[in-house]
Amino acid sequence: MAFAGVGLHVIIALFFAVHAVRTGQNNYWLFILLAFPFLGSVVYAIAIYLPNSRLERGARQLVRQAAKSLDPTRELREAQAAFDYSATAQNEIRLAQALLEAGQPRQALQHFEASMKGPFANDLEIRWGAARAALDAEQPQTALQHLKVIAQTDINYRADEVGLLIAKAYAAQGDNAMARQSFEFLRVRSGSFEVLGEYAIWCTESGDWGTARRLQGELEKAQTHWSSHQRTLNRELLQRIQSAFAKHSQ
Questions:
Q1: pTM of the shown model
Q2: Coil, strand or helix: which one is 51?
Q3: ∠ CA 245-195-17 to the nearest 5 degrees?
Q4: Residue 119 is part of a domain; what is its CATH number?
Q5: Which domain of life does the UniProt lineage start with (predicted)?
Q6: Is a pLDDT exceeding 90 seen at residue 34?
């Protein structure tokens, strides 16, 4: 039993070591994990793995949503006040993000694009915000321009999210051929639940019921092993999928 315990510690340490290499962590983590498998794994899990895991990101998202529901305009008020007091690039970026979250994409886009004229001209996170704002503001061509810059600069940056927004931008332009090509590329490369869900929603809207039904089967299969937490995290997307099939099947 003791031997099995030691083996399990080593396996966990090796798992974290692979994660450290793949995510580009400092090399000293490899020494810590391999020299002290049990203690090293505990420290790595707390310091690196959990803060960047989907579970942790989902928990933080739920906390933000709860805070937003209690005072929906607080962040926008504070961001606007900070920008009015000192119109720095950092405050403008914060205001742009707050405007986007508050459902004011046109104003958000103006501030995002103004931010990219200074020291943050090459910041992909700001350009990502500008792309989201542009699409929400019904400016798909502008969104595509920003998204193409992101993809050309770093193909791995928010790969699924950027790909999905590209597909949606083409769809918003009425370019169904490019939208389908983009969705299919993501389905093959990633095949995540979000990708399949967004693809299925688009298929119902464009009248491709053959593909929509096939994707619906894949989505239902994916949910068979879900926990209640996963259902909570994906509640909004699940509702949109159900609504899309109900609306367009009538």
A1: 0.70
A2: helix
A3: 145
A4: 1.25.40
A5: Bacteria
A6: no
